[in-house]
DNA sequence: GCAGTGATCATA
DNA sequence: ATGATCACTGCC
């Protein structure tokens, strides 16, 4: 089912993840990072999405239930962190591109020690990776970032997909928390 | 601007 | 089996 409504779900998730807290537990250490940048990759006809050429060993996790962690390796050295979205069987995910302290998807995964061992697991305490709401954080959002619960978010084209064709490379599927 | 770096995928 | 590619980063 490739309905526009379903596409909206991934876009909604990508947008809603902005400002949320990505939590990583490594042993006894817990790292909390506010998500500042995401991108949506939606379905079999999105030419920028790994699923645009069908299911493969690498992208099979994208077809899992929403909340599954999709981590893949690229450029011989970098891990990319994604959260699977949509109904089971529909390949889509949100790439976490950056947080307040770690800008760039590969820097983020390096800092949080995210690699293939998380691929296919579900977000949660058990995986050592989960999302928390910002509500428990005081003084948020900071001055200039909008009212509580209403962040200023930019929508931009996605990064690093020149091969995706005019239609898909220009989609505003990238969400960035506006800085003051 | 472009080199590094190696798994993955398409082609055969 | 082989070659091109790659949702990037860091250094020139």
Query: Secondary-structure element sequence?
Result: HEEEEEHEEHE
The first-to-last residue Cα distance is 40 Å
Question: How would you sum up the global shape?
Answer: globular
Q: What is the tally of helical segments?
A: 3
How would you sum up this structure, described in words?
This protein is an alpha+beta fold and 180 residues long. The chain is 14% helix and 29% strand. Strands 1, 2, 3, 4, 5, 6, 7 and 8 form an 8-stranded antiparallel β-sheet that branches. It binds a DNA duplex (12 and 12 nucleotides) through β3, β4 and α2.
Write the layout of secondary structure elements.
Blueprint: H1 4-17, E1 21-26, E2 29-42, E3 69-74, E4 78-84, E5 92-99, H2 105-111, E6 129-132, E7 153-156, H3 165-169, E8 174-177
Antiparallel strand pairs: 1-2, 1-6, 2-5, 2-8, 3-4, 4-5, 7-8
The structure holds a DNA duplex (12 and 12 nucleotides).
Describe this protein with a few key phrases.
single chain, 180 residues, alpha+beta, eight-stranded antiparallel sheet, 3 helices, 8 strands, 14% helix, disordered N terminus, DNA-binding
Sum this structure up briefly.
With 180 residues, the protein is of the alpha+beta class. 14% of the residues lie in helices and 29% in strands. The chain binds a DNA duplex (12 and 12 nucleotides) through residues 39, 41, 48-50, 53, 56-58, 72-78, 80, 82, 95, 97, 104-107, 158-161, 163-164.
């Amino acid at each position: 089912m490739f309905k526009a409504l379903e596409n909206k779900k991934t876009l909604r998730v990508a947008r809603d993840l902005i400002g949320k807290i990505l939590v990583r537990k490594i042993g006894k250490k817990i790292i909390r990072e506010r998500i500042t940048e995401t991108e949506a990759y939606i379905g079999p006809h999105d030419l920028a999405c790994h699923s645009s050429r069908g299911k493969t060993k690498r992208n099979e996790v994208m077809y899992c239930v929403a909340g599954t962690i999709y981590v893949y390796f690229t450029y011989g050295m970098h891990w990319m962190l994604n959260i699977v979205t949509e109904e089971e069987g529909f390949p889509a995910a949100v790439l976490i591109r950056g947080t307040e302290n770690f800008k760039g998807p590969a820097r983020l995964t390096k800092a949080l020690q995210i690699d293939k061992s998380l691929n296919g697991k579900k977000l949660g305490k058990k995986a050592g990776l989960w999302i928390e709401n910002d509500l428990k954080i005081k003084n948020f959002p900071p001055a200039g970032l909008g009212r509580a619960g209403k962040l200023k978010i930019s929508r931009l084209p996605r990064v690093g997909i020149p091969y995706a064709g005019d239609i898909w490379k220009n989609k505003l599927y990238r969400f960035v928390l506006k800085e003051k």
